[in-house]
Amino acid sequence: MTKLKFLALAIALLCGATQLSAKDYQVSDFGAKADGITLNTGAIQRAIDAVNERGGGRLVFGPGKYLTGSIYLKSNVTLHLERGAVLLGSTNPFDYVKDPYVRWMAMVFAMKQENIGITGKGTIDGQGFKTANNMVQYIQRGIYEDPLKLDRPNETNRPENIYFRECTNVTITGITLRDPASWNQTYDQCKNVYVDDIYVEANSYWNNDGIDIVDCDGVVIKNSFFNAADDVLCFKSHDANSICQNVVVDNCVGRSGANGLKFGTVSRGGFRNFKVTNITIYDTYRSAITFAAVDGGLIDNILVDGVRSINTGNVIFLRIGDRWGKGKQPSMKNVTIQNVYAEVPLRKPDAGYNYEGPIEDMPRSISPASIVGLPDYPIENITLKNITMVYPGGGNKLFAYRGLTPAELDGIPEMRDTYPEFSQFKELPAWGFYIRHAKGITFDNVKFIAEKPGDYRPGLVTDDVQGLTLRKVEFEEPGANGKEQVFTYKTTGIVKE
Fold this sequence. Notes:
Blueprint: H1 3-17, E1 24-26, E2 35-39, H2 41-53, E3 57-61, E4 64-68, E5 71-72, E6 77-81, E7 85-89, E8 106-111, E9 114-120, E10 123-125, H3 128-140, E11 160-165, E12 168-173, E13 176-178, E14 185-188, E15 191-196, E16 199-202, E17 211-214, E18 217-222, E19 225-228, E20 233-237, E21 244-256, E22 261-267, E23 270-293, E24 298-320, E25 331-343, E26 369-372, E27 379-393, H4 406-410, E28 433-452, E29 460-476, E30 486-496
Parallel strand pairs: 1-3, 2-4, 3-6, 4-7, 5-8, 6-9, 7-10, 8-11, 9-12, 10-13, 11-14, 12-15, 13-16, 14-17, 15-18, 16-19, 17-20, 18-21, 19-21, 20-22, 21-23, 22-23, 23-24, 24-25, 24-26, 25-27, 26-28, 27-28, 28-29, 29-30
């Protein structure tokens, strides 16, 4: 997508955000009580229905705590939460609906509606930690059926704060979202979604993503903060016949017990035409940037421009796999990542947070950034430009040693059906960047800095790469003393400038 088309998309969504009906209705006039005790599910739903039947408008929540279970937002209705207003999730799991269409639980649902929104300076608080633990007790007593895998209820049996499906013209602005029991907010097969100036604290229970965009067309996310136990900005494709496309992300900050910017926890259809600018990822356990096409989908025409990654376990992880593809050919091509500054720590970057990432198999040396396709599905046309990566250095040969002989390089497992994470390969033979099964890779003004001397690995290793351009690529490693930092294996079309 051209810059002009992206601009047109952003303008269109901005205009859509201002076209919601302005007529106000007070939720208290419909019997809702802001005492934090009275269960208001019925009163709020009657209010939404009434505003919808009257042609639409804003349903205004004044200061106070409005306890509720599942409610359904309807066309032309905006929930407006004034400063001090809290839409408070019930801690009784039986106050929530498991919607039969999407088979998920949520506090605020919307299904096939248009011109809807949640605005204001108020808060949606799911009280998810208490709700999830209450659900555990019901399951253990045999009242609710769930396998309790990993000692937690399935994420579909825990309420999200927001779940919108197949909605058009969605506006989410100004609000704070806290403490979901599952994913935080999901926009699934929606069109024209505008998210601006939201504050997210989703760090109270397992699977707490910051925001999930699933197979949507036309999305703007900007000026927002996310603290998430799981992935921060998470783009998914659940439907093999759909695609997540035409997305703009700008000026967002995130912290995660998993990944910062992630494409493809599920990737059945794919992702196309994204522009991500000016994001900061910090104290994040896994990768600042993860693109994964592992379920038969595609990733095409993606620009990531301006990333500051501080104290993250990994910087860039691009991966093609073959997990749930059912004969479809996964594809990743035409990706540009530029203007990145990143620091990778020696120690666990999310230590001390409520929900940390798992302890990896140890010992092992710090993993490099990586681009890893498959022999039959290479990753194509990737440009890395104006990037600085700072590593701790000092990789220890006595840990999980992996050398550079043909047998050792060929012995790195393909792991084509494994869940995609940068650490899945354990030790890799480079300290800065590892590339395997790829075509048309360009490094342009890329610097790798190792803070400690003595890493046994070279900075950059390529394996089965056709077309490699290295333009102004620098390595700083104390005491390297002329060490060869670039090692190529089964690599052709090498251009060094």
